[in-house]
Amino acid sequence: MTDSPLLNEIKALIKSSGPMPVWRYMELCLMHPRYGYYVSRDPLGREGDFTTAPEVSQMFGELLGLWSASVWKQMGSPQLLRLIELGPGRGTMMADALRALRVLPPLYQSLHIHMVEVNPVLRERQMATLSSVRNITWHDSIDDVPEGPSIILANEYFDVLPIHQMVRHENGWHERVVEIDGNGRLEFGAAAEPTPRFDVLLPPLVRAAPVGAVFEWRPDTEIMKLATRVREQDGAALIIDYGHLRSDAGDTFQAIARHSFTDPLKAPGQADVTAHVDFQALARAAEDVGARVHGPVTQGDFLKRVGIDTRAAALMQKATPDVASDISLAHKRLTDTGRSGMGSMFKVLGISEPRLTGIAGLSDLEQAGGAS
């Protein structure tokens, strides 16, 4: 990767306005109107920079479709259901989910599909993938989705929402910033003055963090939107992402290009910059607005609870030996707890209106606020 137009623009902004907070740098890298990573390309698959679970296997989307069906029944089988996906990639997950839902005509007929996508390249891919689907609409924000009973799916959505990073110094917590070093390169620094009374807001585990520790946090705006929607209008949301179960200190800000980690400050706009999701913070914010929280559990546990072993066996029984081997490898990648698997790194959190006391795959575990 070489110097990008966005790198030059960021340097100009820093020179004119001073060091840039990490959240603003991340926002520009991903969403700059001309050079942002998520407004200019299809980042998925072998030719892209990373692969998501729906691209690994059709089983992932199919099981999320069947999970949605079970929630719809718990909701009392409403005659209109808004199935909303946030950051839907190429439309693969929705296509697989809808194929599974065709076996339930009453539900399938009730569906209105809403795709929340800002990337024009991916939106075109989604339109092609889902060209035969009726009652489907695209939106720039969930705020634009009409009211009504909803099931919301968010796979690898929260990890790209900008984070604030705070660094502990002797005299308090300072906002982490991006600045320019003596050689003209971007580097991390810290605001000159500490953020007043920031330690009062910290989770207990973080208050004892040593000098030099980094703490990351995201504003609660997005999770509160989802939680408020399902609480007030009926329904549930399923959040699947990589992250940690408990709020704690640690620097997880990273960049990925061509399926490998790279320096997040090297070529802004040309790599995917993300940070791990704090599931305890998500759960706390959802509960604060009166929604019910389910889980979180690991992705491996969730998929096994909703039937991935049975589905894989059924697909393999009908497949050629080569295809059966591919299915087995995909199953392992989605559920395995090893370094090459997504089973333990990814977590699954459910949020619902309070009357839904149990949700498939999540219901018999303790609430996320107490997870460890």
Quick summary:
The protein is α/β, with parallel strands linked by helices and 372 residues long. 35% of the residues lie in helices and 23% in strands.
Explained architecture:
It is a single chain. This protein is α/β, with parallel strands linked by helices. It has a domain of 236 residues: 3-Layer(aba) Sandwich (Rossmann fold), CATH 3.40.50.150. Helices cover 35% and strands 23% of the residues. Strands 2, 3, 4, 5, 10, 14, 15 and 16 form an eight-stranded mixed beta sheet that branches. Helix 9 crosses helix 10 and helix 12 packs antiparallel against helix 13.
Strand content: 15-25%
Remind me, CATH topology of one domain? Rossmann fold
Name of the level-1 CATH class of one domain: Alpha Beta
Query: Count of helices?
Result: 13
Architecture of one domain in CATH? 3-Layer(aba) Sandwich
User: What would CATH call the homologous superfamily of one domain?
Assistant: Vaccinia Virus protein VP39
Number of strands: 16
Question: Residue share in helices?
Answer: 25-40%
Secondary-structure element series:
HEHHHEHHEHEEEEEHEHEEEEEHEHHHE
Q: Which structural class is indicated by helix and strand composition?
A: alpha/beta
What is the chains' assembly state?
single chain
Mean pLDDT across the residues is: 91
- Low-pLDDT stretches are 365-372
GO molecular function: protein-arginine omega-N symmetric methyltransferase activity
Protein name: ATP synthase subunit beta
Keywords: Methyltransferase, Transferase
InterPro entries: NDUFAF7, NDUFAF7_sf, SAM-dependent_MTases_sf
